[in-house]
Structures are given as C-alpha cells and as structure tokens.
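Forum > Structural Biology > Help requests

Title: Can anyone predict the 3D structure of 6-phosphogluconate dehydrogenase NADP-binding domain-containing protein?

Hi all, first post here. I have the sequence for 6-phosphogluconate dehydrogenase NADP-binding domain-containing protein but no way to get a structure on my laptop. I'd be grateful if someone could post the structure tokens.
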Amino acid sequence: MSNTAPRAAVGIISIGEMGVGIAKLLQAYDYEVLTTTAGRSPATSKRATDAGITVLPTDAVLVETADYILSIVPPRDAIATANRIIDAYTSTSRDTTKPPLYFLDLNAIAPSTARTIESAITSRAPAIRFVDGGIIGMPPTPHNEPQSSAPSEPSSSPSTDPALASSLLTWKRPSIPVSGPHAITAAPLSGAHLATVLSIKHLSNEIGPASGLKAS
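Reply #1:
Sure, ran it for you. Structure tokens for 6-phosphogluconate dehydrogenase NADP-binding domain-containing protein below:
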C-alpha cells in the first residue's frame, strides 16, 4: 500500500484465521510479519507460508528478531505461550541496542490470567514490555473481500495523518483494546503508526481492564 521501507517486525503466534488477517493488514502497511511453527502442524506452516509470513525456526530466533509479538491463541494456551516467549528470551542474547520487545496478549482471558502473565514476565524477563489486550470483531479484510460472518464495526483511528486514516477506510478491522503501563503509542519503533493500523485503543495504565472488557 505504500512504498516506504519496512517498519517494525511483528511476530504473531499463532497463524489461525485472525492471525492471518492481522498479518495481511500489517503487510499492507509495510510491516515485516514473523512467526514460528515449531511443534505445529504442517497445515499451520503452509498457512503461514501462503500468507507471505516469514517462518522462523525457533522461539529464540523470534524474540531476537521481532520488535512486537502478538499472542493470538486459544485462551487455554495463553499462559503456556507467554512462558514460551519468556523461556526463549531468557535463553538467548537479544541485541541490547534494539528497542525493548513488546509482548501483547490479545487472547480472551480473564484479568486474573493477564496479571499472572504480567507477574511471570516481571519476575523472569523484566525487559519485556507486557501489554494486556483483546480483539473485538472479525479478522481484518480489505473491503473487496468477503468475511465469514458479520463484518466488524468501522474502527476509528487515533492517527493525525489524514492519508493513513483515509487508506485504512479500505479495510474492515476489529478493534484492539489494550491496557497496562506500556502504551503502544509511546513505543520507540513504529508505535503510534502500529496502534493506528491495528486500531489499538489504550484504556488504562493497569493490567486487567482490556482483558476484562473482552471477557465481559
């Protein structure tokens, strides 16, 4: 959609329907999208490859490479996925000159589960910036593509860039409420732009309100 150089590298775990939709949206706005399919089925690997997503061999390589990691998994897998990223982060040497890694839990979990994940990250990998979140709506699609059920409501954009805001009107996007002390808009690498593209809305500096909204 633009001719600029790629922006931040965004890892997505895992590559289901929502993950693919978000990947396509990010790719349209010059983000590099990464994943790892270690331990996943061949069908998952093929889905990622078919979507043009860069498949990395291990979680360790993912945390070394990504600037943001989005966890989009079944709720029962949210804690295990966070622990995978923590284990990978603590077992590798991420370049200290890189901006901090942001880990966004976008799963339909209870606020107490979000706080459990935050506690694990704070105690074991405090350099990771944890963001509590959720996804409300259907996977992103361009307006000329069909959706599997009712479309998402149009998402308002916090962007002050009229060209970006206008181009985003060509997409049906879910909204992504987030909470916690680390606002994506303040992230040093593509933060404000990423928040606009993904329709991220920061609700609170506390962990829990975003996951509570999704769970309610």
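The two ends are 36 Å apart (CA to CA). Residues 78-91 form the longest helix (14 residues).
Shout if anything looks off.
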